[in-house]
Write a structure and sequence with these properties.
With about 110 residues, the protein is an alpha+beta fold. The protein contains 5 helices and 4 strands, in the order αβαβαββαα. It has one domain: Glutaredoxin. A 4-stranded mixed sheet has the order 2-1-3-4, sandwiched between helices. The radius of gyration is 13 Å and the shape is globular. InterPro entries: GLR_AS, Glutaredoxin, Glutaredoxin_subgr, Thioredoxin-like_sf. GO terms for molecular function: glutathione disulfide oxidoreductase activity. It comes from Amorphochlora amoebiformis.
Length: about 110
């Protein structure tokens, strides 16, 4: 039986989720943008979680990277703060709120 990917499980369980680190300014910005929409989303701070290293490994298997922030909406990776496309560019283009609404996070 394959090992459970804790990041994948959290993504499945939440309509919107951000994997973050408390010391990361890009994470703070991404969380602020998500909060400004009024969305309900889960925050997972990988630097304080007991399974932080496992979560980062899980993120790698989902996204090909271990960096944070990593934002998922409705199970889909939408990037970080400014990349992949990222919450800031999506918000500026008016695409973030519709994504969150479609996911049921708004």
């Amino acid at each position: 039986m394959p090992a459970v990917n804790p990041a994948k499980e959290l993504v499945k369980e939440n309509k919107a989720i951000i994997f973050s680190a408390t010391y990361c300014p890009y994470c703070r910005k991404a969380k602020d943008v998500l909060k400004s929409t009024g969305a309900k989303f889960k925050i997972v701070e990988v630097d304080v979680e007991k399974k932080g290293n496992e979560l980062r490994k899980g993120l790698y298997s989902l996204t090909g990277r271990t960096s944070v922030p990593a934002v998922f909406v409705h199970g889909k990776f939408i990037g970080g703060c400014n990349d992949g496309p990222g919450v800031v560019p999506l918000q500026k283009k008016g695409k973030l709120v519709p994504l969150l609404k479609e996911a049921g996070a708004l």
